[in-house]
Amino acid sequence: MTVPDWIWFVFIFVFGCCVGSFVNVVIYRLPRDRSLILPPSACPACGRRIRFYDNIPLVSWLLLGRKCRYCKAPISPRYFVIELLTGLVFSGLFLLYFRTNLRAGTGSFLGGGWFIYLLSVILLAAFAAASAIDLELWVIPVSICWFVTAVGLIGSGVGVYIIDPSVIRGYALLPSASASTGSLAAGAAIGLAISWTLLASGLIKRSYESDDVTGGSEPVPGNQNESQINHRLEVCKEIIFLLPIIICSLTAYWISRKVAPIQSWWVDFSQVPAVAGLLGSLFGYFVGCGVVWATRIFGTLGFGKEAMGLGDVHLMGAAGAVIGAVFVVVAFFIAPFFGLAWAGLQMFFKKTRQIPYGPFLSLGVLAVMILHDRIFHYLNVIFYR
């Protein structure tokens, strides 16, 4: 028996709101180094435990009149907004993937499309949490980015066992590497391991110690320590960190192309569907990191102050691991339009509040997911006509 669409939409919306409730937990607890599981939710003002009937997404916030049942302290509208937006995004993406012609190749939800949908909503929910934290504290927790990166790597490797690999490649449903891009990704991974080893041993130094640990997006406006930092010197430390990655990546590419025995073996090995998926995700990660890091380095060297935060680097690396190298680059170039729109609103309402760049990058990723097929079509026309 076919399940009516309205039941699907209600279920997905409710599911999204429940995920949004957990996203609120992440937003509040993660920056404060608290467990996401224990203790159970409690009122931040009086510390009283919140009962299950007071913790129903959307409904409880409205029924309680936006106040704690016990101490009557106000409950931030952010909880309601995050739950509602997550529910709407989840149901909207379901509609886009399975009830319109805007996204081809996903097929039916139960026929394997659920896997692509699951990866997409995990990415968007995690980026919603990262963006909210960035808006409040001007930091992007790297643990969120690492989680999404792991999801992308595992999903791209496992996805070929759920969906036909030819369909994945034909519709760019998941990242998939060619022999050439796979060699670049493998070499970069070796170089990253070398850079981490050098960093751990103290042979190379960290830049912006606090940013590197917390995943800071940008320096908070008005920070008094800003003028005491030699930003060009700090970013030179990052260039040294990146050198092994670049050198190993180019070396692996050269070997895979010029050394005949290895070339033949590598083509066969790298094009095994699961390996191609894993390497494609890894390549997307490095490209996502690279496009932001290059902007950060050149901007900092040119203007003498930190251009973009390391949190933005991790964020786009995670996006690249899920949506692939080409789409993460497009997302990066779409993001400034959201920044311009925000600046226009600020001018119209005569306000001057600055916000970090992470939310704009997240909106760029969302836009690419919505326009995925159109972007894929235009890129094919441009490069393969």
Task: Give structural notes.
There is one protein chain. The chain is globular and about 70 Å long. The chain has 385 residues and is an all-alpha fold. The chain folds into two domains: 5-100, no CATH class; 142-384, no CATH class. The chain starts with a helix and ends with a helix. The chain is 70% helix and 0% strand.
Question: Which terms summarize this structure?
Answer:
385 residues; mainly alpha; 15 helices; globular
Task: Describe what is shown at a glance.
This protein is mostly helical and 385 residues long.
Low-confidence stretches: 210-214
SSE order, as H and E? Answer: HHHHHHHHHHHHHHH
Strand content is under 5%
Number of self-contained structural domains: 2
* Mean of all residue-level pLDDT scores: 90
Quaternary organisation of the protein chains: single chain
Shape: globular
Helix content: 55-70%
Radius of gyration: 22 Å
Question: Could you give a short account of the major beta sheet?
Answer: none
| Class of secondary structure makeup | mainly alpha
Please specify the SSE layout and strand pairing:
Blueprint: H1 5-29, H2 59-63, H3 77-98, H4 109-137, H5 142-158, H6 165-171, H7 179-201, H8 209-214, H9 231-258, H10 260-270, H11 273-303, H12 310-323, H13 325-348, H14 358-370, H15 372-384
Helix pairs in contact: 1-3, 1-4, 3-4, 4-5, 4-12, 4-14, 5-11, 5-12, 7-9, 7-11, 9-10, 9-11, 11-12, 11-13, 12-13, 12-14, 13-14
